[in-house]
Amino acid sequence: MSSKGLRILVPVKRVIDYQIKPRVNKTKTAIETTGVKFSINPFDDIALEEALRIKEKKKAPVDAIHAISIGPTKSQDILRNCLAKGADTSTLVDAGSQELEPLAVAKILKEIVEKQGSNLVIMGKQAIDDDSNNTGQMLAGMLNWPQATNAAKVECENGGSRLKITREVDGGEEVVSASLPLVITTDLRLNQPRYVGLQNLMKAKKKPMDKLKLQDFANLDLESRLKLLQVIEPEPRSPGIKVGSVDELIQNLKNAKAI
């Protein structure tokens, strides 16, 4: 790649809005989607916001921010939202009604990275619909790039040729440093995504959006490795009780073998 600036790829997914309580359909084979509000996956929204902030802080030259979504045709709505927030270009890989597993998604993203000449991928650590949390790791493995997962803070070093990432781990925080190219997956505490105004949404309609289909990716294996047997709702929690004293509390805990 001739330019020394960052070319950031931000994958985004269209999911049921996080404020909506999912409902299982009558046949218990899937989540009900009819008449349900969809929006951008929250972790992906954070990833886009971080890409925009890197560009705005100007501590590293950013050549382009490219948003990509792999999903149904309606996914172009969340891509327009990304463009309205500040992404330069976008790509929709129209998968129709086909549900893709993380491995297939990672393979598509690998081809897009190579096509775009990207040297930095910032993506949500997981989607809130399947909670797989492994697409970023698979992508890094296929590209043979270093990875920094669960990012809570991202800092540019050496003019953007190297990045320092603070990761959230079980014991607290871990700080890692890696040079480009790099895959980063984002956690919730990284930032607070911005809102987008109607005027910017209207302007976004003029920004370029490439449209591809799954057939455009040669030798892509879409075979599912997992078989969904049944979808059931979790058991409702039993109501709590009030106790009249500390002694009664302790006795109840002992009866429940909690202490």
Distance between the termini: 62 Å
User: Main sheet: which strands, in order across?
Assistant: 9-8-7-10-6-1-4-5-11
Residues in helix, %: 25-40%
Tell me the number of helical segments per DSSP (H or I, 4 or more residues long).
6
| CATH-derived architecture | 3-Layer(aba) Sandwich
Radius of gyration in whole Å, from Cα? 21 Å
Shape, per Cα inertia axes = globular
Q: Remind me, CATH topology?
A: Rossmann fold
- List unreliable stretches of 5+ residues: none
How many DSSP-defined strands?
A: 11
Output the helix-strand order.
Answer: EEEHEHEHEHEEEEHEH
The fraction of residues assigned to DSSP E strands is: 25-35%
Secondary-structure-derived class: alpha/beta
Domain Electron transfer flavoprotein alpha/beta-subunit N-terminal: 28-221
GO molecular function: electron transfer activity
Protein name: Probable electron transfer flavoprotein subunit beta
GO biological process, one term: fatty acid beta-oxidation using acyl-CoA dehydrogenase
